[in-house]
Amino acid sequence: MAGIPVNVPGTWAGLFSAEWGENTHARELMKRFSPIALTKANTPVQYLRTLADVLASLIVLTGAEEARAAAAPLVPLCAAGIEQAGGFFDSVDPPRVALQVLSFVNAAEACGAAQGLVQASPAKAWLEALAKKVKKLDDVLLYRCGLVALCLGEPDLAAKLVGGGTLPATLTPGEQFGFNVQGFVRYLATAMKVGAPSEAVRPAWESFVEGFPKKKAAEQVSWSDLLWAARAYFVGVEGRPVARVGESLHALVKPA
Protein backbone atom coordinates (compact mmCIF):
# COMPACT_ATOMS: atom_id res chain seq x y z
CA MET A 1 0.00 0.00 0.00
CA ALA A 2 2.44 2.65 1.15
CA GLY A 3 5.11 1.26 -1.16
CA ILE A 4 3.38 2.16 -4.43
CA PRO A 5 5.96 4.48 -6.04
CA VAL A 6 3.96 6.47 -8.59
CA ASN A 7 2.37 9.68 -7.33
CA VAL A 8 -0.79 9.53 -9.42
CA PRO A 9 -4.48 9.65 -8.57
CA GLY A 10 -5.99 6.28 -7.76
CA THR A 11 -3.05 5.18 -5.59
CA TRP A 12 -2.14 5.71 -1.95
CA ALA A 13 1.07 7.42 -3.03
CA GLY A 14 -1.06 9.80 -5.07
CA LEU A 15 -3.36 10.58 -2.14
CA PHE A 16 -0.34 11.41 0.01
CA SER A 17 1.58 13.30 -2.70
CA ALA A 18 2.14 17.05 -2.68
CA GLU A 19 0.60 17.30 -6.16
CA TRP A 20 -2.54 15.20 -5.74
CA GLY A 21 -2.71 14.74 -1.98
CA GLU A 22 -5.77 15.81 -0.03
CA ASN A 23 -4.30 16.52 3.40
CA THR A 24 -3.69 20.24 2.76
CA HIS A 25 -7.19 20.63 1.33
CA ALA A 26 -8.68 18.87 4.37
CA ARG A 27 -6.80 21.14 6.76
CA GLU A 28 -8.00 24.23 4.92
CA LEU A 29 -11.64 23.10 4.92
CA MET A 30 -11.62 22.25 8.63
CA LYS A 31 -10.03 25.61 9.42
CA ARG A 32 -12.52 27.48 7.21
CA PHE A 33 -15.78 25.81 8.21
CA SER A 34 -15.29 24.93 11.90
CA PRO A 35 -15.64 28.54 13.14
CA ILE A 36 -18.74 29.00 10.98
CA ALA A 37 -20.26 25.80 12.36
CA LEU A 38 -19.72 27.03 15.91
CA THR A 39 -21.72 30.17 15.15
CA LYS A 40 -24.58 27.99 13.83
CA ALA A 41 -24.88 25.72 16.85
CA ASN A 42 -28.68 25.56 16.53
CA THR A 43 -28.39 24.03 13.04
CA PRO A 44 -25.37 21.71 13.26
CA VAL A 45 -26.41 19.26 10.54
CA GLN A 46 -25.29 21.39 7.59
CA TYR A 47 -21.70 21.66 8.71
CA LEU A 48 -21.25 18.26 10.34
CA ARG A 49 -22.41 16.54 7.15
CA THR A 50 -20.12 18.77 5.08
CA LEU A 51 -17.10 18.05 7.27
CA ALA A 52 -17.61 14.28 7.68
CA ASP A 53 -15.43 13.24 4.75
CA VAL A 54 -13.03 16.10 5.45
CA LEU A 55 -12.37 14.89 9.01
CA ALA A 56 -12.15 11.27 7.86
CA SER A 57 -9.52 12.16 5.25
CA LEU A 58 -7.59 14.21 7.80
CA ILE A 59 -7.45 11.20 10.13
CA VAL A 60 -6.25 8.84 7.42
CA LEU A 61 -3.69 11.19 5.87
CA THR A 62 -2.32 13.08 8.88
CA GLY A 63 -3.03 10.83 11.86
CA ALA A 64 -5.33 10.89 14.87
CA GLU A 65 -3.53 13.57 16.88
CA GLU A 66 -3.98 16.40 14.38
CA ALA A 67 -7.50 15.27 13.53
CA ARG A 68 -8.46 15.07 17.20
CA ALA A 69 -7.40 18.69 17.75
CA ALA A 70 -9.37 19.77 14.68
CA ALA A 71 -12.49 17.83 15.70
CA ALA A 72 -12.56 18.71 19.39
CA PRO A 73 -14.28 22.14 19.07
CA LEU A 74 -17.11 20.55 17.06
CA VAL A 75 -17.78 17.59 19.35
CA PRO A 76 -20.32 19.55 21.48
CA LEU A 77 -22.45 19.84 18.32
CA CYS A 78 -22.57 16.11 17.66
CA ALA A 79 -25.43 15.02 19.93
CA ALA A 80 -27.65 17.84 18.70
CA GLY A 81 -26.63 17.08 15.12
CA ILE A 82 -27.69 13.45 15.44
CA GLU A 83 -31.01 14.45 17.01
CA GLN A 84 -31.67 17.03 14.32
CA ALA A 85 -30.78 14.63 11.52
CA GLY A 86 -33.14 12.03 12.94
CA GLY A 87 -35.90 14.59 13.24
CA PHE A 88 -36.23 14.96 9.48
CA PHE A 89 -35.37 11.37 8.57
CA ASP A 90 -38.53 11.12 6.48
CA SER A 91 -37.90 14.31 4.52
CA VAL A 92 -35.71 15.01 1.47
CA ASP A 93 -32.84 12.50 1.05
CA PRO A 94 -32.80 11.75 4.79
CA PRO A 95 -30.59 8.65 4.82
CA ARG A 96 -27.63 10.46 3.27
CA VAL A 97 -28.00 13.45 5.57
CA ALA A 98 -28.35 11.38 8.72
CA LEU A 99 -25.55 8.99 7.82
CA GLN A 100 -23.21 11.85 6.89
CA VAL A 101 -23.79 13.44 10.29
CA LEU A 102 -23.24 10.06 11.93
CA SER A 103 -20.09 9.65 9.85
CA PHE A 104 -18.67 12.86 11.32
CA VAL A 105 -19.41 11.50 14.79
CA ASN A 106 -17.75 8.21 13.88
CA ALA A 107 -14.66 10.09 12.70
CA ALA A 108 -14.58 12.08 15.94
CA GLU A 109 -14.70 8.83 17.91
CA ALA A 110 -12.10 7.13 15.71
CA CYS A 111 -9.55 9.85 16.48
CA GLY A 112 -10.39 9.95 20.18
CA ALA A 113 -12.19 13.30 20.24
CA ALA A 114 -15.54 11.78 21.28
CA GLN A 115 -16.84 8.52 22.65
CA GLY A 116 -20.08 6.56 22.92
CA LEU A 117 -22.19 8.77 20.67
CA VAL A 118 -22.54 6.35 17.74
CA GLN A 119 -23.64 3.49 19.96
CA ALA A 120 -26.08 5.74 21.83
CA SER A 121 -27.59 7.15 18.61
CA PRO A 122 -30.81 5.97 16.94
CA ALA A 123 -28.73 4.62 14.04
CA LYS A 124 -29.95 1.04 14.45
CA ALA A 125 -33.57 2.18 14.10
CA TRP A 126 -32.62 4.22 11.01
CA LEU A 127 -30.96 1.19 9.42
CA GLU A 128 -33.85 -1.13 10.27
CA ALA A 129 -36.22 1.30 8.55
CA LEU A 130 -33.99 1.42 5.48
CA ALA A 131 -33.70 -2.37 5.39
CA LYS A 132 -37.43 -2.51 4.66
CA LYS A 133 -37.00 -0.58 1.41
CA VAL A 134 -33.60 -1.60 0.06
CA LYS A 135 -34.94 -1.86 -3.49
CA LYS A 136 -35.49 1.89 -3.52
CA LEU A 137 -31.92 2.71 -2.44
CA ASP A 138 -28.71 2.74 -4.43
CA ASP A 139 -25.85 0.34 -3.80
CA VAL A 140 -23.35 2.96 -2.58
CA LEU A 141 -25.74 4.08 0.17
CA LEU A 142 -26.50 0.49 1.12
CA TYR A 143 -22.79 -0.37 1.37
CA ARG A 144 -22.35 2.43 3.86
CA CYS A 145 -25.43 1.32 5.76
CA GLY A 146 -23.99 -2.18 5.94
CA LEU A 147 -20.70 -0.91 7.35
CA VAL A 148 -22.52 1.18 9.95
CA ALA A 149 -24.55 -1.87 10.96
CA LEU A 150 -21.32 -3.81 11.47
CA CYS A 151 -20.00 -1.04 13.72
CA LEU A 152 -23.19 -1.31 15.77
CA GLY A 153 -22.55 -5.04 16.19
CA GLU A 154 -25.39 -6.08 13.86
CA PRO A 155 -23.97 -8.45 11.22
CA ASP A 156 -27.34 -9.88 10.17
CA LEU A 157 -28.72 -6.38 9.65
CA ALA A 158 -25.64 -5.54 7.60
CA ALA A 159 -26.27 -8.56 5.38
CA LYS A 160 -29.91 -7.62 4.96
CA LEU A 161 -28.94 -4.11 3.88
CA VAL A 162 -26.31 -5.08 1.29
CA GLY A 163 -28.18 -8.16 0.05
CA GLY A 164 -26.98 -11.60 -0.90
CA GLY A 165 -29.14 -13.70 1.36
CA THR A 166 -28.46 -15.33 4.71
CA LEU A 167 -24.88 -15.22 5.93
CA PRO A 168 -22.90 -18.46 5.63
CA ALA A 169 -22.33 -20.51 8.77
CA THR A 170 -18.55 -20.62 8.25
CA LEU A 171 -15.85 -18.28 6.99
CA THR A 172 -13.29 -19.17 4.34
CA PRO A 173 -9.98 -17.67 5.58
CA GLY A 174 -7.93 -15.38 3.39
CA GLU A 175 -10.52 -14.29 0.82
CA GLN A 176 -10.18 -10.97 -1.03
CA PHE A 177 -12.88 -9.01 -2.84
CA GLY A 178 -11.35 -6.37 -5.09
CA PHE A 179 -14.10 -3.96 -6.18
CA ASN A 180 -16.83 -6.16 -4.69
CA VAL A 181 -17.77 -3.99 -1.70
CA GLN A 182 -20.92 -6.02 -1.08
CA GLY A 183 -18.85 -9.18 -0.77
CA PHE A 184 -16.43 -7.47 1.59
CA VAL A 185 -19.22 -6.24 3.88
CA ARG A 186 -20.78 -9.69 3.95
CA TYR A 187 -17.38 -11.27 4.68
CA LEU A 188 -16.84 -8.95 7.66
CA ALA A 189 -20.38 -9.69 8.83
CA THR A 190 -19.71 -13.42 8.66
CA ALA A 191 -16.40 -12.99 10.48
CA MET A 192 -18.08 -11.08 13.29
CA LYS A 193 -20.94 -13.53 13.55
CA VAL A 194 -18.78 -16.67 13.72
CA GLY A 195 -16.02 -15.03 15.78
CA ALA A 196 -13.32 -15.63 13.16
CA PRO A 197 -9.72 -14.91 14.17
CA SER A 198 -8.24 -11.70 12.82
CA GLU A 199 -5.55 -13.51 10.82
CA ALA A 200 -8.28 -15.20 8.78
CA VAL A 201 -9.91 -11.85 7.97
CA ARG A 202 -6.85 -9.62 7.59
CA PRO A 203 -6.19 -10.40 3.89
CA ALA A 204 -9.69 -9.20 2.98
CA TRP A 205 -9.27 -6.05 5.07
CA GLU A 206 -5.82 -5.20 3.70
CA SER A 207 -6.98 -5.84 0.15
CA PHE A 208 -9.93 -3.48 0.70
CA VAL A 209 -7.59 -0.80 2.03
CA GLU A 210 -5.09 -1.30 -0.79
CA GLY A 211 -7.81 -0.90 -3.40
CA PHE A 212 -9.48 2.06 -1.68
CA PRO A 213 -7.89 4.80 -3.83
CA LYS A 214 -9.23 3.20 -7.02
CA LYS A 215 -12.64 2.58 -5.48
CA LYS A 216 -12.71 6.19 -4.27
CA ALA A 217 -11.72 7.46 -7.72
CA ALA A 218 -14.61 5.42 -9.14
CA GLU A 219 -16.95 7.03 -6.55
CA GLN A 220 -17.75 3.60 -5.16
CA VAL A 221 -16.64 4.47 -1.61
CA SER A 222 -15.70 7.59 0.36
CA TRP A 223 -13.28 8.52 3.14
CA SER A 224 -16.13 8.06 5.60
CA ASP A 225 -16.78 4.56 4.28
CA LEU A 226 -13.13 3.67 4.78
CA LEU A 227 -13.30 4.83 8.38
CA TRP A 228 -16.49 2.84 9.03
CA ALA A 229 -14.81 -0.22 7.51
CA ALA A 230 -11.75 0.36 9.69
CA ARG A 231 -13.93 0.52 12.79
CA ALA A 232 -15.73 -2.66 11.78
CA TYR A 233 -12.43 -4.50 11.31
CA PHE A 234 -10.24 -3.09 14.08
CA VAL A 235 -12.97 -3.08 16.74
CA GLY A 236 -15.32 -5.84 15.55
CA VAL A 237 -12.64 -8.34 14.51
CA GLU A 238 -9.40 -7.39 16.27
CA GLY A 239 -11.03 -5.99 19.42
CA ARG A 240 -9.13 -2.69 19.51
CA PRO A 241 -10.64 0.36 21.26
CA VAL A 242 -12.64 2.69 19.03
CA ALA A 243 -10.32 5.59 19.87
CA ARG A 244 -7.39 3.70 18.29
CA VAL A 245 -9.09 3.12 14.94
CA GLY A 246 -7.88 6.31 13.28
CA GLU A 247 -4.24 5.92 14.25
CA SER A 248 -4.29 2.22 13.33
CA LEU A 249 -5.59 3.04 9.86
CA HIS A 250 -3.13 5.90 9.36
CA ALA A 251 -0.22 3.64 10.35
CA LEU A 252 -1.36 1.06 7.81
CA VAL A 253 -1.43 3.41 4.82
CA LYS A 254 1.14 6.14 5.45
CA PRO A 255 4.27 6.14 3.27
CA ALA A 256 7.37 4.53 4.76
Topology:
Layout: H1 12-16, H2 23-39, H3 45-62, H4 64-71, H5 78-87, H6 94-110, H7 117-120, H8 123-131, H9 139-151, H10 155-162, H11 181-194, H12 198-217, H13 223-236, H14 245-253
What does this structure look like?
There is one protein chain. Helix content is about 65%, strand content about 0%. α10 packs antiparallel against α11. With about 260 residues, the protein is an all-alpha fold. The protein has one domain. It starts with 11 loop residues before the first helix and ends with a helix. It is built from 14 helices and no strands.
Helix and strand sequence: HHHHHHHHHHHHHH
The total beta strand count reads 0
Largest sheet: none
The helix/strand class is mainly alpha
What's the helical proportion of residues? 55-70%
Rg, please? 17 Å
Number of domains: 1
Shape: globular
Provide the low-confidence segments as ranges.
Answer: 2-6
Number of helices: 14
Averaged pLDDT: 92
Q: What oligomerization state is this entry in?
A: single chain
Q: Could you give the distance between the termini? A: 10 Å
Beta-strand percent range? under 5%
Summarize the structure.
The chain is mostly helical and 256 residues long. 65% of the residues lie in helices and 0% in strands.
Features of this protein?
single chain, 256 residues, mainly alpha, 14 helices, disordered N terminus
